[in-house]
Amino acid sequence: AFTRSKAIVLLKMLAIRSGAPVHRDVLMEHIWPEVDPQRGANRLHGVVHDLRSVIEPPRNGRDWTYVRNRGELYYLDCEAGVDIDVARFRTLLALAQRGASDRDDDVCAPLEQAVELYHGDLFADDPFAMWCEPDRLELRQRYIDALRRLGQLHQARGRGDLSLIFWRRALRAAPFREDLLVSLM
Questions:
Q1: pLDDT at residue 60 is higher than 80
Q2: Calpha distance 15→48 (Å, rounded)
Q3: What's the pTM value of the predicted model, to 2 decimals?
Q4: How far apart are CA 36 and CA 156, in angstroms?
Q5: Exposure on the CB side of residue 10, measured as CA atoms within 13 A
């Protein structure tokens, strides 16, 4: 439904920030590197319009529902009922980190929910998108860490069968990690 492919890139850029505002200059630099500022601003305006025309409901007032801006800052309004799996993944990991102890179910449940949300590298459909590489690497590492922690937790509880499942998944995600191989053995 998008008339401009860059509208999808813009949506991705706003989604991984989970509501945090992004300055238009940052967006322009990532979407059109080396374009002059005036031309980039015009292009961004067109892409924002295209994105809004596809995902926004009909407006009852002057404010947009999902793709919002405050001056030169653009963001996806997560309070408007937008469900972003990356945001849920990070929230579940933070919840697990606040768990009372390693033997607490308050740790295992959110970790297990988080690892089930992870379906591969961030924006794997666009493997050469360098603008998301830091997030891609961070999310992959956090996924592997969550699997490793689940393996340790289940092992400590005497649930070797469950522990093996998580160790194997971690090793599939990071096949060259010696520490994971040792833990699996």
A1: no
A2: 14
A3: 0.84
A4: 58
A5: 30
